[in-house]
Structures are given as structure tokens and as C-alpha cells.
Amino acid sequence: MVKVMIVDDEYYVRMDVRTLIPWEQKGFQLTEDAVDGQDALQKISELGPDIVLLDISMPGMDGITLLGRLREQGFAGKIIVLSCHDDFSHVKEALLLGAQDYLLKHNLAPDMLEKALDSVVRKLEEERQETEQLYKWKAAAADSQQMYRRNFLQQMLQGYMTQPEPIREKLKELELTFPTAYGVVMVMQIHDAAQEKERRGSRAFDQVKTRLEERINTAFIDPSTGYCCENGEGQFVFLLGFAEMPSFLYLQNLLYALSSGVRGLLQNDYQLQASIGISRHCEAIGEIADYYRQAQEALAGVFFLGKGRVIHYSEITDYVNRPTAGFKEVELQLLAAVKEGGRIPALIGDIHEDLMRQKVSMEAMRNIHFEFVSFIKKLQRDHGIADQELFGGGASPYEVINQMETGEEIRLYITGILELASGIITSRSQRKLRKEIATAIAYMQEHYRDNLSLEILAAHINMNSAYFSNLFKKETDENFVAFLQKIRIEKAKQLLTGTQDKVYDIAAQVGIDNYHYFCKTFKQLTGMTPVQYRLLG
């Protein structure tokens, strides 16, 4: 509804106007009345009417004075003047001050008031539409400029533009007026971005990033000091410019204040955590791509130093070493720890701390972590542990580790998986089978090469085959055929690594005459072909 305020010092005039037309039926909502200009000035500010019916002659601040004050304050509503004066000088003055119409109180009729109100409502609607369109045009222009700025900076940061003069001309064209004699690049990464995008929704998360970019470029930096934009990979790039070489202390304080402010904004307003990588200072704008790489490498230091950090490039330049020992040197220790169970966290912790002390490169750390996963997968195959049982049926451990941002997260993940595997293996080894089933399994272990069947095994232990089938499944959690195939494949694995026999010969030796069926079963149980298993050793 359109809000209307009546301003008149005469009570009976206000009551007459209130009862002159059915306001609500016509789409209007009457606000509280005002009794003079001063009272109206305050109430207009508080109640925000769209239309004011204003008496010209009032004690204290009159209507003409109020019109002037409202014009000074930029009042967006419309004024219809009510007066007893049929005087052109009053009409002219009121219209010059912004009044939309001028009605005589002693000659006021319902149709006259409705006509005046309808005319004003049309003007309000036209202005609203014009304002919306203007806002859209301005927003489109701002978006377009932002897009051009982002595209240009991406070209510059990726090394496609290296000549100083064309860079300065383009910056000027894009109204980025920060100095270019010296510069510093910062790169900010929102942590757990993939999870946040899934939790909030892709569109909502993109809107958060857009608003964040806008707020950084208004509250923390401006075109005369630098610029921030998203680089298309979920990171925010800050390019700060200086006319003269800043002192070390000034630069440190500036970067600390900027980093703290932006990370605080993220935490307080969006409940997000971020880290920032900072380059060394750049003395040639044409070489900015090299310093962008430095900031990226500094940000990658989160892997070693942890999340929620501000990391300077100089802090991570030492992480370039190769590990002094290979993974095979700890494999026997890991197998013993899995057997014992309780030693796993301490052993993994010691290995991780030793690698951190050596300051091995990120590539080397990633390779070692993948070797841990390969060890786990081999452990899983050797003990017949299902993916669902060990990994919960989600993404593969290789994918999970690849998405983790810090070495500490990976250490905890690997520790948890190994402890779970150890628990499963221990539980299975401690389970006591019924004597008849144990006898049947021992027979299978000895005669796996033969053409075994459920009936032969049941007869061996003097048991009905149907009863034996149910009892075997209950005791071992597997049916007879699946259990026998696992025994045969385990024997095949020993032959593959311990002999040079042909694969088809090994298939026959373990009781599977069909070569293709053997290869299919082997891959189902181990995740690889017999040839691949043999190559892995």
C-alpha cells in the first residue's frame, strides 16, 4: 500500500480528510498525522510516507518552510498542498519547491482528492521503474568493468603482458590508478571451499565470493592503492602498488593490517576461514607473474604450516628436500604396528614429524602419502576387507587425500584408516569357529586344487549339505563358494610372486581351469589383474 501522511494544525480538517475517501479500498495506508511543520519533519523521517498532504499555513514552521527543508534533505516522496489561499504566489512557491499538486480545502471533493492522489501514484511508479532500470544499468556497467579488470589482471598475472607501458595504459583505462613502481602480490584461499560450496549451495557460495570481492575493494583497498579480484580458481588475488620503495616495517604493518582485516571479515560475517600467501616485493610491473607464483607457493605452505595462516614466501623456500629414507624402510614397522594395534598413532606421528624436520618438498610428501594409501590397499586385499567396511563406500582414499589441504589432515586420516584396518584384522583373527566349520576350512585349505563342492565338504564332516551351507555362512559371514575362491586367489598370489609359472598354469594349480574366469575373479578380489599383481611384486 501507498503510505499517506496528513499535515494540518486544525483537528477537524484532519478528520474531514481522513473520512473523505475509503483510503484502504483505494490502496492507501494513512500514517499518524502531524500538527505542524516541526512535528511533520520528525514523523516523515520516522514513518517514511510516500505522499504528504500538506497545509501551507500553520503556526511555527509553515508548509512552505517545511517544503524547503524536505527538499534539502532529499525527501523521495511526493507533496500535495492543501490551502485556504487561492493565491498564485502560494501556488508558484509550493510548486517551485517540489509540490505535485495544489488543492483548496474549502472546495475539496472526494473525486478531486482521488484524482490528485492517482496522478501522484503514477508518478511514483514511473520513478520507481526508472530508478530500477538505472540501477540495473549501473550494476551492468559495474559488472562489465569488473569483468574487464579481472580478465586483464589474469593476463598480467599469468605472464601474457610483460611490457610496463602497455600495462600502465591498460590500468589507467580500467580506472585502476594505483602506482606500479613497486608492488606486492597476495593470494587468499578460503579453506574447505568444496565442502562450503556443497553446504551452502553453488549459487549462494558464488554470491558470497562476489560480495566479499566488492567489500574488500571498498573497505580495505581502493583503485588508488591496489585491487583485489577472484582468479577463477576460488582464490582472491591482491595486487598492491607503491610509488616508492616502502620501508620493511611499513610494509609489514600494512600487510598484517590488511590480512587481519580481510580474514576477520570472512570469519565474523561469513563464518569462513582463510589463509594468505604473500610474495616478495616486486620492482618491475612486467615481472608481476613471477611474484604471483611466489604468493601461490607461499599459500601452498599451508600444507606444512596449517590452516588460518598468513605465510610469506621466505617462510617456505626451505621445503625442497628429498626424504632421507624410502617408504619400504618403514613398511615392516607399519605391518608390526597393524598387528599390535596400539602403536599406529605414535608410529605415523613419528614418521610425519621426521619428514617435517627434514623439510621435504610438497611433491615428496604427497608421494609418501600415496605410498601409505597403496600400503593400506594391499593390506585390504590381503585380508579381504571390503571398501565399504574400510572407507565407508565414499570416494577412494586417493581422492580423499588429494582434496585435503594440510599434511596434518592427511596424517590423521591415514592413522584412522590403519587403526580401523587393524581392528578388523584383529577381530577376525580372534573369532573362534565351531569345530565342524574349522575342520571344513582346514579341508578346503588342503584340497583347494580339487574339484570341491558343498556336498563333498558336508559329507566330509558328516553334515546335511543344506544345514552345512547355512552354518558356514553364519560362522564365516561368507558363502562356501566365495570363501573357497578367496583361498584359491590367496594361493595364486603366492605363486605369482614366488614362481615364474605362467598365469594360466597358476590358475590350474589353484583349482580354476577357466583362465578368463580366474582373471576376472582375481581382479574382483584384488583390484588388479594377475599380471599387474606380479609386477607390483
TrEMBL record:
Record GO biological process: phosphorelay signal transduction system
> Annotated Gene Ontology MF terms?
DNA-binding transcription factor activity; sequence-specific DNA binding
Primary location recorded for the protein, binned into one broad class: cytoplasm
What high-level taxonomic lineage is stated for the organism?
Answer: Bacteria, Bacillati, Bacillota, Bacilli, Bacillales
Keyword annotations from UniProtKB, A to Z: Cytoplasm, DNA-binding, Phosphoprotein, Transcription, Transcription regulation, Two-component regulatory system
CC per GO annotation: cytoplasm
The protein's matches in PANTHER family, at most eight in alphabetical order, are given as:
HISTIDINE KINASE-RELATED, TRANSCRIPTIONAL REGULATORY PROTEIN HPTR
Q: Which InterPro entries match?
A: CdaR_GGDEF, CheY-like_superfamily, Homeodomain-like_sf, HptR, HTH_AraC, HTH_AraC-typ_CS, Nucleotide_cyclase, Sig_transdc_resp-reg_receiver
Q: Where is the signal peptide?
A: none
Q: Which domain of life is it from?
A: Bacteria
Write down what this protein is called: DNA-binding response regulator
What Pfam families does UniProt report for this protein, alphabetically?
GGDEF_2, HTH_18, Response_reg
